[in-house]
Specification:
heterodimer; A: about 140 residues; alpha+beta; Thiol Ester Dehydrase, Chain A; 5 helices; 5 strands; about 35% strand; B: about 80 residues; mainly alpha; Non-ribosomal Peptide Synthetase Peptidyl Carrier Protein, Chain A; 4 helices; about 60% helix
């Protein structure tokens, strides 16, 4: 698959994720981040949140899954990503990751996707919780 | 676009992408060996940023032939004029 073909086939994609207790605990184990904002409900409420705030970088892990598992080829790698957090994410939130193409360069075989994370709540308008970019490079076979 | 103007804009892009505090000071003979921050990944970022800023597109063959910044600017001049 060429970078142009990948761009055509991935012009607008989305995938839905759930911030389950398993996801939260796995990220906590991996990061060892025990900041009270993430683990102490009373503390989080005192600071104005409605409960423990989920680790923002869980969304980065969702990007990893999205790129590694949802694109039409596995011959790629993430070269860079950035994300800005606009609203807190809570346990059991359903998050829809939407990706659209920002830049394609055939010269260096990359696509930069623009990302939006929306909280999906039944019967309510979706809310933008984070946005960012991820740049992937197409992996080419090593010349013999 | 004049060569001097291309160099001026290119210096800004290099400074921004490579996060150079003391300026890029690019000349025709500058190569990746002269700038520590210019590695293979930042090379990709530079190409993407240059394509975007100048609204031009390179080919992979074209960029593989460049031996220095001067040759990159030669390519850019031919596309911009």
């Amino acid at each position: 698959m060429t970078i142009s073909e990948l761009a055509e086939q991935s012009a607008q994609l989305s995938h839905t994720y759930q911030v389950t207790p398993e996801v939260y605990q796995a990220f906590q184990l991996c990061s060892q981040d025990l900041n009270p904002l993430h683990i102490d409900e009373t503390y989080a409420k005192e600071k104005g949140f409605k409960g423990c705030v989920m680790y923002g970088n869980i969304l980065n892990a969702f990007i990893s899954h999205f790129i590694g598992m949802c694109l039409p080829t596995s011959n790629l790698m993430i070269q860079s990503q950035d994300i800005s957090f606009h609203r807190p994410v809570y346990l059991n939130d359903t998050i829809q990751l939407e990706a659209g193409i920002d830049t394609v360069s055939e010269a260096v075989n990359i696509i930069n996707y623009k990302l939006k994370f929306r909280r999906i709540t039944e019967g309510a308008k979706s809310e933008l919780v984070a946005k960012g970019h991820v740049q992937i490079g197409l992996l080419l076979d090593k010349e013999a | 676009m004049e060569r001097e103007e291309i160099f001026s804009k290119l210096n800004e892009i290099f400074e921004d992408v490579l996060d150079l505090e003391e300026g890029a000071n690019l000349t025709d003979s500058t190569t990746a060996n002269d700038i520590e921050e210019w590695d293979s990944l930042s090379h990709i970022q530079l190409i993407v940023a240059i394509e975007k800023a100048f609204k031009i597109k390179f080919t992979s063959l074209e960029i593989m032939k460049w031996a220095n910044v001067g040759e990159m600017v030669d390519s850019m001049e031919s596309k911009l004029n």
